[in-house]
UniProtKB/TrEMBL annotation:
Gene Ontology CC terms, in alphabetical order: exocyst; growth cone membrane; synapse
Keyword DNA damage assigned: no
GO BP terms, alphabetized: chemical synaptic transmission; Golgi to plasma membrane transport; protein targeting to membrane; protein transport; vesicle docking involved in exocytosis; vesicle tethering involved in exocytosis
Superkingdom, natural source: Eukaryota
Originating species: Holothuria leucospilota
Pfam families in the record: Sec8_N (PF04048)
Limits of the Exocyst complex component Sec8 N-terminal domain: 40-138
PANTHER family: EXOCYST COMPLEX COMPONENT 4
UniProt function note: Component of the exocyst complex involved in the docking of exocytic vesicles with fusion sites on the plasma membrane.
Keyword field contains Transferase: no
Protein name, entry field: Exocyst complex component Sec8
Length: 189
């Protein structure tokens, strides 16, 4: 079998060499008669090749048909896969853009959450400060001076810190500062 393949290869090389010599002769030749002879040789060689090709096709028709069908099927699958990949890339780009939008929205919501926590913290401090005079009187009447002192210190710290600009607490702030200077031993009026 390998001997047949070797013969076919040498024959193909010989035909290729023959074709090259015909081309050289036609290109160099000035004589129309010689060109016509070479042309007829070339035509007979082409006819011989056509016959061999027809013979090979008829001998290998089933294999050739299966190969063409397989190629067609593979080509179709590759085309479908390319289209899907293109669609997936488009979908991924859309998702990426949406994620950027979501990230911006989440960042905005996070900042709003922080602001709300700060506002709630300030409101809690205001409530503590508003209730501080009553609690302080209660601690003093119960003779819990340590708790009263801690409350006084904490309240003054709030009033001098975050709540410094709240005008509604000015009166309580003045009471607490005067109480701090006087001492914690007697109830507030």
């Amino acid at each position: 079998m390998s001997g047949d393949k070797e013969k076919d290869r040498y024959a193909a090389q010989a035909r290729t060499g023959k074709l090259m010599s015909v081309i050289r002769v036609v290109a160099v030749s000035d004589n129309d008669e010689q060109r016509n002879v070479e042309k007829s040789k070339l035509e007979s060689a082409f006819q011989e090749c056509d016959e061999r090709l027809d013979k090979l096709i008829s001998e290998n028709y089933e294999i050739l048909t299966k190969t063409i069908q397989a190629y067609s099927s593979i080509s179709g699958r590759i085309k479908t896969s390319r289209e899907r990949i293109k669609q997936v890339k488009g979908d991924l780009n859309s998702c990426k853009e949406l994620l950027h939008c979501r990230r911006d929205e989440l960042k905005k919501l996070w900042l709003e959450g922080i602001e709300q926590k700060q506002v709630l913290s300030l409101l809690d401090q205001i409530e503590e400060v508003k209730g501080a005079p009553q609690k302080m009187n209660q601690y003093i009447t119960e003779k819990r001076y340590l708790h009263a002192t801690e409350l006084l210190t904490k309240t003054v710290a709030h009033l001098e810190g975050d709540l410094k600009g709240v005008e509604a607490l000015t009166e309580i702030g003045l009471e607490m500062k005067s109480r701090k200077e006087v001492g914690v031993t007697s109830p507030l009026a």
